[in-house]
Each structure stands twice: as structure tokens, then as C-alpha cells.
Amino acid sequence: MSPSLKSEARWILVLRSSAVCSALLLLLILAFLCKESWPVLREKGLSAFIYPGAWSPREGEYSLLAMLMGTLSVTAGALLIATPLGLLTALCCNYYMPPRLASYLKRMLEILSGIPSVVYGFWGLTEIVPLVNRIHPPGASLLTGSIVLAIMVLPTLALMADASIVSVPTQAVKGAAALGLDTWGVFRSAVWPAARPGLMGAVLLATGRALGETMAVIMICGNIVQVPTSIFDPVRTLTANIALEMAYAMNFHRSALFVSGLLLAFCIAIIVSLASLVRPRHA
Amino acid sequence: MLRRTSSLQESLLRSSSWAAAAFVFGIFILIIGSMLWHGAGLLSWEFLTSEPLQSGRRGGIAPILVSTILILLVCMVTAVPLGLGTALLLSEYSSSKPSFGNFVRWCLDLLAGIPSIVFGLFGNAFFCKVLGLGFSILSGGLTLACMVLPILIRALEEGLRAIPQDYRRAAASLGLPRHATLWSILLPAAVPALMVGLILGLGRAIAETAALIFTSGYVDRMPESLMDSGRSLSVHIYDLSMNVSGGDKSAYASSLVLVALLFIINISASMLADRHLKSRLDLL
Fold it and tell me: By the CB < 8 Å criterion, does B121 face chain A?
């Protein structure tokens, strides 16, 4: 009795310490971001980063506003394109396509969702940028970034939307259909109310992914620090800025890049909290 | 009148959702097609087994493949034990203390959302600088391990939860201690699901670029130890397309190799999942 209890206690201790390690990882990351960004934050204050101004680390100007606008506008553009497409694709999978075709489409979406972002970026650079360049130079722009980012988040969005449509109780759907409603009516009255939390969760997760994307964006957005005034303007996002300048950044400059990392983590935290609010908690 | 507006919406919905599906299909063909079109010509056994020349414009990707595999190994060797332990605690032992389990889950959700470039920043500050590992395969692998941990845990936990409650009750009624139940009943029953989780984590790790640039570095020579800097396949694609003019062909061929690897990973995950499901159905 007692040796078995003892080994049970030891076993639980091992498991609990691994769980504590996993949870501590988050705190460790946040602590390091804070520690590394502290020097410049102490010297300049948080306001130097979010008030309008220039980003020229050499002169001691660290306004992230233009890049924050870049990040937000590219993300918004990507979601504007991807959300309707994703939802419609999921609808088509469930209500219009023959099941066999739908299963092929889903397999295709799975493959697409696994393609690395650097490949999407490279593809965008060689195929989409020249295309947009023909309409309005210079091609590498907010619009191109939004398009490629939309294509990138679309598969996951569609798959998650599909999962939440599938999880709507069959009785509700069949009941609505039995009342003589067509697909539009069934969707509006039975599917949408039941699937809405899942669909919103899917969109929020896509937002998080688009906000944090680096490689695709760095290759196709043009990387010029400016607040975009048209969709054909090149922009630089927060993530791209980190990846571009980290290689040679020293002292305050390096510290400022960690501040932008902290800012990104903060945005993501808000989105993840929102997502866990709308998503039904699984039992 | 009512009827007509409804049928108008209906046909709109129908046509637009077919259009969306066709768009997705078209994108798939375009991406895979352009990779095959530009990259397949260069692909050969020699490409896979020779050293890159002229910063990758010519030659192959052998050292890059080796670095990629080493980085993945380091990542998995670190992440799997930690992830499995956490998943076991969350699925089997957290019912007595739900608040602790929920706290861990919340941390992991947040961790899963953190952008990969931020993991890169952290890895650079912690593994490269504080632990003194420098730009090395070890730093890169450890950074990736932090990144895939939440995905791995989520998949492993779901695999463990999917085991029917009857297994646990039957073992308990036979008087087996819980850790013995875990070792000899639950873990073996969950192996296929665990493999699926592992493969998913692997897929995420192999696709990663941003977290690796400032941790495992750019060097494209054959690594001699884990402390050497090594360039992963994804970083190679990035470098070829951004910093090497005339590297597009090699970049396409490398992308093709990367996507083929991912495709194999994806197929084996879904085959395992199917077999897992089938064996469960046989039991019922």
C-alpha cells in the first residue's frame, strides 16, 4: 500500500512540475521581453513609442505608430478578403457540394493550411507582386500584402468555420428545412445562431495569425516606414521591422525592437482573451 | 413577393459560395502549379545531396537538409517529454484542482497565439545570449520547442481525453494504482493519437522561419555539432528570394522539397488518425 502510494505521489510530482514548466514558459518569455525593453522604456517612456513621429533609431526617435498602422491595415485588409471567402467555402462544403467533392476540398484546405508562410511569401513575391505592379506600381504594397495574407489565413479559417457549421445539431437544421425554408433561410435561422461563436472564434484566430505573420509580409509589403494613404502604398509592419533590423540593432535600438515585440504580444493577448470569451469552452 | 426575394438570396448564396470554393481550388492549383513549373526541373537526387554553391544559386541543399533535421530533433526531444507530462496532468489529474489546470491552459492558449518572431526575440535574448549558446542549432531547436509546446499539448490532451472512460473505471475496479493505469493502459491506447499530435507539432516546426533567423542563423555549411549555426530549409528559401538575385529557381525547388515533406507529414498524420478511428470502431 505505502510504496504504491509513494510512487503515485512521485509520479504526480513529475507531471505537476512539467505542467508548471510549461506555464512558466509564458512568464519567462514576457519577463525577457520586459527586461530587454526596459532600458529604452526607462529613458524615453512608453509615450515615445505610440505618439506620432519618426522611426529613426540612430537619432533616438522610436515612434512605432506608422508600423502599428501598417500591421493593423494589412490585417484588416486580409480579414476583409478572407472572412467572406472562408465562410462561403465552408457553406459550400456543407450544403451545396456532393459529400465526396467536399471531402476532397477539405483535404486540399488541410494541405494549403500546412504550407509554410515563407512559401506563400515567395509565391506572392514572384506571382502577385508583378501582377499588382502592372495595375499600379510599385507592386509591393498594402494591397498585395493583404491578398497574400488572406490566401494564407483562408484555409484555416474555412476549416474552422466548417467545423463549427458541422457541429450545429442536425435536428435544428432538419427542423428548419422541414418548415419549408430554403438554404438561405436555414442558414439564417438555424445555423448562424448556433454556429456564431465558433465562426467568430475562427475569425479571431485568423486575426491573431495575420497580426503575427512575419515572413509573408516582409517579402511582399515593400517595408517602407509610412502611414499608408492608399492601398497601393508600401508599408512596414511591426513584425517585419523586428526581422529586418534585429540583425544589426544595438543598445537602445535593440531594446526598442523588444518593445515592439511586447506590443505585439499585448495585442495577441487581447485577441486570445476575446476568442476564449466567444468560443464555447470544451468540456 | 416574399418568396421571390428569398429565392433571389438563395441563388446569390449558392452562386457566391460555389465561386468561393472555386477560388480556393484555383489558388491551390496556382500555388502547387507554379512550384512544380519552376522548381521541378531543378529537383534531382544530386540537388538533395550536394552542397550549395554561389550562395545557393547553384548546387544543392544537403547541409540545409541536415541542419533542418537536427533542429527538428532538438525541438522534439525537448518538447515531447514536457508536453506529454503536461498533457497527462491536464487530462488525468486536473479534475481535483480545476483552477490550476485552467491557469495552465490559459497560459498555453496565450503562448500559442504569440507571434513566431517574438519567440525569435526571446530565443535570441535567452538561449543565444543569457545561456551563451550563440547562433546554433541548439538555440534554434530550443526556441522551436517553446513554440510548438502549446500545439503539442493541446493535441496530446485531446488524444488522451478521447480514450473511453470505461478503461479508467475497469482499471480502477481491478485495484490498479492510477500511475500503473496510465503507463500500461491509457498511454498504449493513446499511442496513435499521440503520434498524430507529434506529427502536427513537427509540421508546425518545419514550416517555421521567423523564429529561426536570429537563433539558429544563416550559415549554409554542413554543421559539425549542435553548437554550429545551421540554416533551415525555410530560412534558405527566405534568403534565396530576398538576398540572392537569381536564386528564384533554387528557391522554388527548395519550396517544393519543403512542401513535399509537409505533404508526407500531413498524409501520415491523417492515415494514422484513420487507423486509430478504425481500431476504436472495431472495439465497440
Answer: yes
B149 in contact with A, Cβ within 8 Å: yes
Closest to A246 measured CA to CA, from A260, A228, A266: A260
pLDDT of residue A2: 60
Q: What is the pTM of this model?
A: 0.89
- CB contacts of B100 in chain A (<8 Å) are 19
CA distance readout (Å), A95 to A154, A164, A253, B7, B70: 19, 14, 54, 16, 45
B176 touches chain A (CB under 8 A): no
Quick one: three-class SS letters along chain A?
CHHHHHHHHHHHHHHHHHHHHHHHHHHHHHHHHHHHHHHHHHHHCCHHHHCCCCEEHHHCEECCHHHHHHHHHHHHHHHHHHHHHHHHHHHHHHHHCCHHHHHHHHHHHHHHHHCCHHHHHHHHHHHHHHHHHHHCCCCCCHHHHHHHHHHHHHHHHHHHHHHHHHCCCHHHHHHHHHCCCCHHHHHHHHHHHHHHHHHHHHHHHHHHHHHHCCHHHHHHCECCCCCCCCCCCCECCHHHHHHHHCCCCCHHHHHHHHHHHHHHHHHHHHHHHHHHHHCCCCC
Collect all residues with Cβ–Cβ distance below 8 Å to B128 and sequence separation of at least 6.
B134, B135, B136, B139, B214, B215
Task: Give the strand pairing for B52-53 and A61-62.
Answer: unpaired
Tens digit of each residue's pLDDT (9 = 90 or more) over B38-77: 888 888 888 888 888 887 788 888 899 999 999 999 999 9
Predicted complex ipTM: 0.88
Quote the CA–CA distance of A182 and B6 in Å, as a whole number. Answer: 8
Q: What is the pLDDT of residues B104-114, one digit of tens each?
A: 888 888 898 89
Tens of pLDDT, residues B250-259: 899 999 999 9
Note whether B27 and B199 are within 8 A (CB): no
DSSP state of B97: S
